[in-house]
Every structure is written in C-alpha cells, then in structure tokens.
Amino acid sequence: MARKDGKPGRLKQIRETYQLTKRSDPRIGLILLGIFFGVLAVFLLVGYLLGLLAFAVPLGIAAALLTATIIFGRRAERSAYSQIEGQPGAAAAVLKSLRFGWFVTPAVAINKNQDCVHRVIGRPGVILVSEGPNSRVTQMLATERKRTARYVPEIEIIEIQSGNDEGQIPLQKLNRKLTKTKRNYKPAQVTEVRKRLEALTAQPMSAPKGPIPKSARAARIQRG
Fold first, then answer.
1. Contact in structure between 79 and 21 (CB atoms under 8 Å)
2. Is the dihedral of CA 57, 59, 60, 66 positive or negative?
3. Is the pLDDT higher at 198 or at 60?
4. How far apart are CA 165 and CA 86, in angstroms?
5. Alpha-carbon distance 31 to 17, whole Å?
6. Which of 159, 165, 158, 163 has the alpha carbon at shortest distance from 173?
7. Nearest 5°: CA angle at 222, between 219 and 224?
8. What is the pTM of this model?
9. Which of 13, 76, 142, 179 maximizes the CB count within 10 A of its CB?
10. CA 126 vs CA 22, 64, 117, 160, 179: distances in Å
11. What is the dihedral of CA 196, 197, 199, 203, to 10 degrees?
C-alpha cells in the first residue's frame, strides 16, 4: 500500500527490489529459501538434541529470517551496481544514495564522450567525482577543480575517479570511500559552501543523454 506522502510502502519496496535483483541474479529465490530452511534446520536439530525444541522453533525462525535478509541485502546491492555499471550517470545514481549531510550535484562537467564530473559537498569538503577513463577525466577534474576553487578558495577540494581503471574506485566502493574520508568541516560550514557554489550550479551545463540510472535504489532500500 502506498503511503500518504506518495512513497511506496515497505513491502512494495522489498518486492520491487526483489524483482530488480532477480534480473541479474535469477537464482536469488532458491538461494534465500535454502538459507532460510538451512538455518532453521540447524536450530531445530540443536533444540531437539538438547530437549529445548519449544525454544528452538521461534529462535530458529527469527535467526533464519535475519540471515536471509542480510544475504538478500548484499546480493541486491551487488545486483543494483552491476545493472547500472557502464551507463552514463551511474556514479551520480550511486552518490545520490548518500544520506544526512551530503549534497550531490550531478554532471557539473561533461564532455562529448559522456564522461562526467559530479560535485559532492560534505564535511570532508568539496569532492569532485569523475566517471570515465582515466585518460579522459584527469584534465576534466583539474579544470573543474580550478573553477570550484574560485568560489571556495579556502575549502579543501578532493578528486576521486570512479571506474575500473587502475587507481579508480569501483561503483560498489564509491560511497564507502566518501564516508570514510576525514571530516574537516562542521555542518554549518558545509551549508555555507553549498550556498556559495549554487552560482556554479546555476550556470548552463549539458546533462548526459537519457535519465540517470535508478537501479541503485535497491541498495538504498536495503540500507534504509
């Protein structure tokens, strides 16, 4: 059932996540059932041997559900990344799953090959995240760094390349990389930086062709 705020209910979110995951992981249903009944069987066997079957049944069901849910979340996240990898805007889709104090502006720079630089503002400072081959995005990052520094010269600017080239960060590790970056500024300072960079955002900039991939929402649902 949909909620009053227009967002889908929890059960609908789980169903949609399962359907998305099954596209690239068709055996997910059998795997989850196997895990559930396998864990439950272990608890029932131990409970039977110890003469505590009445306690083992509810405990085993709870443990089986928890284990299956954890495995489902991990496989759903991996599936979501695999479905959007290689698409223009994939890094932006992943970055948008960041929560609480992160501000993402997709495609602040883009070239004819659809290589992009996205801007993330958070407590570490301003983080410029590229997507595309190293040979093409290095100069894009340098140019965007200079452009950004004119507005916030005293703020640390960090460059991160997302992708599978040497030295780049794969999509599935991108958000973890950002969240583990040292916090240099207080929330009030982050807000001030965001306001000062709104002028950059307001400047005309072409966006990648086609919509930014949405499959990364599976990862957000499982972490929610």
1. yes
2. positive
3. 60
4. 12
5. 16
6. 163
7. 105
8. 0.67
9. 76
10. 37, 43, 12, 11, 13
11. 180
Q: Which of 178, 202, 207 is nearest to 89 (CA)?
A: 207
Residues 81 and 164 sit within 8 Å (Cβ to Cβ)? no
Q: Is the pLDDT of residue 95 over 60?
A: yes
Residue of 158, 145, 130, 148 whose CA lies nearest to 193? 148
pLDDT in tens, 136-153: 999 999 999 999 999 999
> Which candidate, 222, 223, 218, 224, places its Cα nearest to that of 79?
218
DSSP secondary structure letter of residue 159 = E
pLDDT digits (tens, 9 = 90+) for 26-72: 898 999 999 999 999 999 999 999 988 899 999 999 999 999 999 99
Backbone angles phi, psi at 207, to 5 degrees: -100, 160
3 state SS of 152: coil
Alpha-carbon span 128 to 181, nearest angstrom: 13
Determine the average pLDDT of the residues in 110-123: 92
DSSP-derived 3-state class of residue 198: helix
Total H helices, total E strands in the chain: 9, 4
Mean of the per-residue pLDDT values of the chain = 83
Strand ranges across the sheet with 125-131:
103-110, 116-122, 125-131, 157-162
pLDDT (mean) for 159-169:
91
Give me the residue label for tokens 């190293």. 134
Q: Pick from 202, 192, 203: which is nearest to 154 by CA?
A: 192
Q: How confident is the model at residue 122 (pLDDT cuts 50, 70, 90)?
A: very high
